[in-house]
Amino acid sequence: MTSKRNFLKMSVLGTSLLGITALFSETRAHSAVSKRRALTTKRTNKPIVVSTWNHGLAANQVAWQILSKGGKAIDAVEQGVRVPEADPSVMTVGYGGYPDREGKVTLDACIMDENQNCGSVAFLQHIKHPISVARLVMDKTPHVMLVGEGALEFAKSQGFKEQNLLTDKAKSAWQDWLKESKYSPVINVENHDTIGMLALDSNGDLSGACTTSGAAFKMSGRVGDSPLIGAGLYVDNEIGAATATGMGELMIKTVGCHLVVEMMRQGLNPEQACKAAVERIAKKLGDYKQFQVGFLALNKAGEYGSYCIQSGFNYAVTDKSGSELKDAKSIL
């Protein structure tokens, strides 16, 4: 009889605990939903465009010309990042970018719109504007990603012309590197190998783009996070968007930009979401002081924020009030 009473007590206790756990989960879910509803009902700062690094200022100006006239976010981000792609002074993106160990400039890019349509190219050579090739992969093919020779052939079929992307300055830097062939990227110099851009248009729709020449003097065939949806870029038109910079391998391992957006889904603001993602990566790394990882996020209300490991990461913001370069908060 005693055993039966104990069994009944344990059963009641177990049921109660399950009920409490379910109630807690339901309350937490309700809280996240409430925060999302509050986000969508608050006054939105739109249009707005944000992008990584100081070369984002010039890129934002082109994007803003589209947004300020009621244009779509997807068109704004594509045209915006084409600016550093064509600028040989930006040696981490497009034309003039640092080559790989064989002296070849190989480019990666991706783009994503408000409907989760996306396109990507990786290990693309001889084409100045990989972001526009990625856009056409999205618009004109049943695929998400094309790489290498396949990406090049597709680009040429769409009217892109091959050209030499290795400038004299980049070639000289590669020849100097060959003397020791030591691969040790300099934080915030060789590691800020992207421009990531996020935009919210007048219709309240989000889009993003990311493009790079990759890590300087990388192994031939190396692909980082920049062309990978979820790692270097992610857009969820219900919640927000995120892009990344720094050591691409770390963003790939953690699907970092998707993580940031999911943190915003749970109710965090953009800066809090970026910080949570960076801290998770840093905790897993242990020796995080050797690396740079940075995220930039924009939510549906037009709120933005950023966070990184190392100080020195900055980002550009352009809206109705003008343009500004801001420093991201950091762990170190």
Detailed description of the structure:
- This protein is α+β, with helices and mostly antiparallel strands and 332 residues long.
- It is 39% helix and 21% strand.
- 49% of the residues are buried.
Provide a brief overview of the structure.
By secondary structure, the protein is an alpha+beta fold. It has 9 helices and 13 strands.
Low-confidence stretches: none
CATH superfamily of the largest domain: (Glycosyl)asparaginase
What proportion of the residues is helical, as a percent range? Answer: 25-40%
Query: What is the number of helical segments per DSSP (H or I, 4+ residues)?
Result: 9
Structural class: alpha+beta
N-to-C span: 63 Å
Q: What is the total number of structural domains? A: 2
The chain-level mean pLDDT equals 90
Give the overall shape.
globular
Radius of gyration: 22 Å
**Strand coverage percent:** 15-25%
Give the class-level CATH name of the largest domain. Answer: Alpha Beta
Number of E-state strands = 13
Biggest sheet statistics: 8 strands, mixed
What CATH architecture of the largest domain do you see? Answer: 4-Layer Sandwich
CATH topology title of the largest domain: Glutamine Phosphoribosylpyrophosphate, subunit 1, domain 1
Tell me the strand order in the biggest sheet.
4-3-2-6-5-1-11-12
Helix-strand pattern? HEHHEEHEHHEEEEHHHEEEEE
